[in-house]
Design goal:
elongated, Beta-Lactamase, 4 domains, alpha+beta, 5-stranded mixed sheet, 55% helix, disordered C terminus, 5-stranded antiparallel sheet
């Protein structure tokens, strides 16, 4: 439930409200009488110099002014008073309503008809101008509302925007309440507090929600409610209600403000429905993605852990047999198999855990300025066995600047990229790692001379659980998460990663490390003299 109040107004007592309303009702007739009296005084002072027709024109001018400023009623009053004053003071015999010359009767008739027509036409022009201003204001308000609603990312933000614009239009307090799920059947569960503390308001809100029509004050339904209830409804769905209450007791919004509020609510319903549907679609998509990830993780665990577990079990059971008759070389091979397969399981579990961190957004980067070769050196030590059959060359220039990185994470990037290159290339093919500065970043490349990437795989290789074809065997061993984790780590550092064919054959994986991080001075210890 969103509650938005209009601009604060000074509190008025009921007596003050009634007095102000009475003054407003008497202002127009009083102004008409005052203007006719002013013309009478001026005409009477100049009666010796003016002709009666000149004085009649002055009264017509007064009628036009009253009609332009107010409506038809005050203008008609000015016409009648002006005609009476003209007859009484400016038509012989003076100070009586008798008319000796019949020509004045025609003057009176023409003067009355002209005053009536002019007041009517002027009042109509004024009404049309007011209607045009109202339409313009309503159009501007709807445009401003639609513009903000288009930028709203959630239904909560959209609801707040609707409440604020309706409150401004009606100059009143506004409550926007959405039903639980937009169901058309049954009574909606309205929230407690605020305007819903009143039983009459709750009844009016339920009636307006179910029938799709306004209820409460100023309508023909649920008139006991001290609020105007507008339904939020589209052609296919009922969303909730908008409740308008006076900001000050007994000071209700004027009809223009109520009409504008109703127009804004009608136009906002579709945008609110779209926001709600987008949220439900996003929630459903996240559920589908989460279920797909869980299924893929379970499949990966069941498939990729079975092989190393079977190897470890077989090697361990062989070692538990009669070891006295077993040659030392055989025992060493079995122990080495256990070590290799256990490390393989460790890497697989580490990749799965890293993938969970990347997907959940809990990957924390602790940057520090340090040489890139340190992270690369640690990665090469850990990959001594996988890279045994691949000659490796490194090319890091001596003037390569320090980079702000999380050493453990970038070390994992090197491990995944080099292990991936060794896995997908034949034994004996060379690998190369090089880096170079490029503006405000450092570019790192891990390249091989293997079969390269298939057309269209440049982006696909970074998808979760994607496995390329290794030597035509239909897919390499592994969970297919290494490159996805690399992408998450590099993006967390503010860089980007991509794959491309390498000149002369093979594939090249490149990533950037921006040179923006914590101040260098904060990372350096003071020099001792």
């Amino acid at each position: 439930m969103h509650i938005v109040a209009a601009a604060a107004a000074p509190a008025l007592s009921p007596a003050d409200v009634r007095a102000r309303s009475l003054r407003a009702r008497l202002a127009a007739p009083g102004a008409a009488v005052g203007l006719v009296a002013l013309v009478t005084v001026v005409g009477f002072a100049l009666r010796a110099r003016l002709q009666p027709t000149d004085v009649a024109m002055l009264y017509l001018l007064a009628v036009v002014v009253v009609a332009a400023q107010w409506r038809f009623g005050p203008a008609l009053l000015a016409s009648v008073l002006g005609l009476a004053a003209f007859d009484f003071l400016f038509v012989p015999p003076y100070y009586t309503f008798e008319v000796l010359e019949r020509a004045y009767l025609l003057t009176f008739a023409v003067m009355l008809v002209v005053a009536f027509l002019m007041s009517r036409l002027t009042a109509r022009v004024r009404e049309q101008a007011e209607e045009a201003r109202e339409r313009e204001a309503r159009t501007a308000a709807q445009y401003a509302l639609s513009t903000e609603l288009d930028a709203a990312a959630t239904s909560g933000a959209a609801t707040s925007i609707v409440a604020r614009h309706v409150a401004i239009a009606a100059q009143a307090d506004v409550v926007v309440a959405l039903s639980d799920d937009g169901a058309d059947d049954g009574d909606p569960a309205w929230p407690d507090g605020g305007a819903f503390d009143s039983v009459d308001v709750r009844v009016a809100a339920t009636w307006a929600h179910q029938h799709g029509e306004p209820a409460g004050f100023g309508t023909a339904h649920c008139t006991e409610a001290e609020a105007l209830v507008l339904p939020l409804r589209t052609a296919t769905r009922r969303l909730g209600v908008v409740i308008v209450t006076p900001a000050v007791a007994e000071r209700w919004p004027d009809p223009t403000g109520c009409r504008m509020a109703a127009a804004l609510v009608e136009g906002a319903a579709l945008a609110l429905q779209r926001a709600l549907l987008d949220e439900r679609h996003d929630a459903a998509r996240l559920e589908v993605e989460a279920e797909r990830l869980r299924t893929a993780l379970l499949s990966s665990l069941s498939h990729d852990l079975r092989t190393p577990l079977a190897s470890i079990e077989g090697a361990a059971s062989s070692l538990l047999q009669d070891t006295a008759a077993m040659a030392p070389d055989v025992r060493r091979d079995l122990a080495e198999a256990i070590l290799v397969e256990s490390r393989r399981m460790t890497r697989l579990v580490a990749n799965l855990l890293d993938m969970v961190r990347v997907e959940s957004g809990t990957l924390t980067v602790r940057k520090a300025w340090q040489p890139l070769e340190e992270a690369l050196g640690v990665a090469l030590l850990r990959l001594d066995e996988p890279l045994r059959d691949h000659p490796l060359t490194t090319s890091l220039p001596g003037d390569l600047p320090l980079v702000p990185i999380d050493e453990l994470l970038i070390e994992q990037v090197f491990i995944n990229l080099l292990e991936n290159a060794a896995k997908y290339t034949p034994a004996g093919t060379p690998l190369a790692v090089r880096a170079w500065p490029d503006g405000e970043a450092v570019v790192v490349e891990v390249a091989d001379r293997g079969p390269g990437l298939a057309a269209g795989d440049e982006a696909a290789v970074f998808r979760k659980f994607y496995r390329g074809d290794r030597d035509g065997d239909g897919g390499a061993a592994g969970a297919g998460l290494g490159l996805t984790i690399c992408r998450g780590i590099v993006m967390a550092h503010g860089g980007r990663i991509w794959a491309a064919p390498r000149d002369g054959g093979g594939a090249a994986f490149r990533f950037t490390l921006p040179l923006d991080g914590p101040p260098v001075a904060a990372r350096l210890a003071p020099l001792e003299r």
